[in-house]
Amino acid sequence: MATRRFTGDLPPDPDNGYNNQVPVQPAAPSAQPARPQSAPRVPGQRQAAHLPRTLTQVLNEANERVIQGDLVDYVPMSTGFDPLDGFIGGGLRKTELTLLGGAQGIGKTIATLQIARNIAMRPDQYAFYLSYEHTETHLMHRLLCMESVNPPEIDISRGVKLRDLYQIIVAERAKGFMGRDPNAPGSLQAILKENPRTAPALARMSRYADRMILVKASPAVTTLKAIKEMTARLCDATGGNVSVFVDYLQKVAVYPERPRDENDKVTIIVEGLKDIALSLDVPVWSIVAADREGLKSKRIHLFHLRGSSALDYESDIAIIMNNKYHILSKDHVAFNPYTAKQFRDWVVFTVEKNRAGRAMQDMEFQLHGQHFTFDPRGQKVQQQLIDDKVIES
């Protein structure tokens, strides 16, 4: 696929702030065996997304895509987190909106970026990550720290922390500036490639670097319209094989609409993200912040998220994160405050809404925060948690 900068397909949008430029680089050669590329989407399919069609037309279109070998509508994209994939029907699906909520610092960005990375690792898939919180360079640094422990292997002994990464870069450049080592590497890539601690991480990241598209979004100018237009161009360039990640929902710019309050703003945004998923035929995953009452609660639930009624209605899947130590039931017969401290680094993921399966399912994953990664090999929670809800099968 040739490199494209999406400047000619649509006129510049003054509301965008990026002049509609979203680069997509050609995929780098991979050591993994090549997978067959999905067949191109039926011409005009997305343009006709909101036009009436007979059931016969829908059936014929779906039939043609299956004949061409395009099965992406039937095969979910694994998040790489087990058993989460099992609870949500195998992974992310096109046209679906998944929300991830929790308290500040619980690891929502870590989990979301790791899932985006896992999807981009597939040679036929692209991850489009919009961050309203961090620059693209900071996200790259996080990914290098993540790759240093090589999830799901999670070899902490070889792990690089953010502080270590910065020290390596500064120390190598200082050698060149001070003339102590005229052969010292001068570029960032050369430093990372020649250092034994960072070289493996850089090599792993290079396997998907051309399929991970990052945008430093602006709460002032990156509107729903801008997100939709950038995603549409990526769909055109990749045959529709794009998953969209928004970090985070409440920061999306709302313009020219004038919401009455915060709940009205969240309603506009979540409806817009669901429309992007449906009309562009892509999965959308978005982080959601908790409201003030939720932050005071011992255990955050879906109804604690800002704009919860709209979030509950529009989302297909809603996952809530809580620190396991904080939500262990003190009435549990096996509870011991000393042994319970071992759960401080474990985060409970609760599927509180699930249109395709059972809800209120709790699973836990160990967080390695200094390396910006979860161990994706999780398990069902065995201990009793506070606010447990029993769902009859």
Describe what this molecule looks like in 3D:
This protein is an alpha/beta fold and 393 residues long. It has a domain at 77-160 and 197-380: 3-Layer(aba) Sandwich (Rossmann fold). Helix content is 32%, strand content 15%. It is built from twelve helices and ten strands. It has helices spanning 55-67, 84-87, 108-120, 136-149, 162-177, 188-194, 199-206, 224-238, 262-280, 292-296, 308-314, 324-327; strands at residues 97-102, 126-131, 212-216, 242-247, 284-289, 317-323, 346-354, 361-368, 373-374, 379-380. Strands 1, 2, 3, 4, 5, 6, 7, 8, 9 and 10 form a ten-stranded mixed sheet that branches. Strand 4 (242-247), helix 9 and strand 5 (284-289) form a beta-alpha-beta unit. The protein starts with 54 loop residues before the first helix and ends in a 13-residue tail after the last strand.
In short:
The protein has 393 residues and is an alpha/beta fold. The protein has a domain at 77-160 and 197-380: Rossmann fold (3-Layer(aba) Sandwich). It has helices at 55-67, 84-87, 108-120, 136-149, 162-177, 188-194, 199-206, 224-238, 262-280, 292-296, 308-314, 324-327, and strands spanning 97-102, 126-131, 212-216, 242-247, 284-289, 317-323, 346-354, 361-368, 373-374, 379-380.
